[in-house]
Write a structure and sequence with these properties.
By secondary structure, the chain is an alpha/beta fold. It contains three helices and seven strands, in the order H-E-E-E-E-H-E-H-E-E. A hairpin with a 2-residue loop joins strand 3 and strand 4. The longest helix has 17 residues.
Length: 160
């Protein structure tokens, strides 16, 4: 219970008047704790495999709440999320996941150093397994960066 001592006509015999105000300090404390929790948890919800993605100037699309990432690393190893899987077990592992719908989107990430044929092999494995809704993942680029790498005639840093 909160009281107000602002009244000047209070004498020793009278009761203190009740203040009808909400104390917001506990609410602010709870909000600050929730803010800290979300700031710590947000970076942990992304895939953390080191893949050097190519850039794209396409308009970014909204991603689902729990996306399924299939990654091809530079050593041609395949991973679902952060868990490495063999190519022969790729579809079986996707089917065993909690949301085992074939209609969900599969986000395919491939390192820049992965040959095009290897990327197509993984796409074919996914298509043969019944996963036809596949999106390719790239980094957001600037429209000027869309020029091919070999188009520049000026000497520059060594390219991979």
């Amino acid at each position: 219970m909160a009281v107000s001592l602002a009244d000047s006509d209070l004498d020793d015999d009278s009761d203190f008047a009740e203040a009808h105000e909400i104390n917001v300090t506990p609410f602010i404390d709870v909000m600050l704790v929730l803010l800290i929790i979300f700031m710590v948890a947000a970076p942990l919800s992304t895939v953390d495999l080191p893949v050097d993605l190519p850039t794209s100037t396409a308009t970014p699309q909204k991603k689902p709440d729990k996306p399924t990432y299939v990654s091809i690393k530079p050593d041609l190893a395949v991973a679902i999320g952060e868990d490495a899987v063999k190519r022969v077990d790729l579809v079986r592992t996707l089917d065993a996941m909690a949301d085992a719908s074939k209609d969900r989107y599969i986000f395919l990430r491939a390192d820049r150093a992965v040959p095009y044929g290897e990327l197509m092999d993984v796409l074919e494995i996914l298509r043969a397994g019944g996963y036809s809704r596949i999106k390719l993942v790239a980094l957001e680029g600037v429209a000027d960066a869309a020029a091919p790498q070999g188009a520049s005639s000026a000497p520059g840093p060594e390219r991979r």
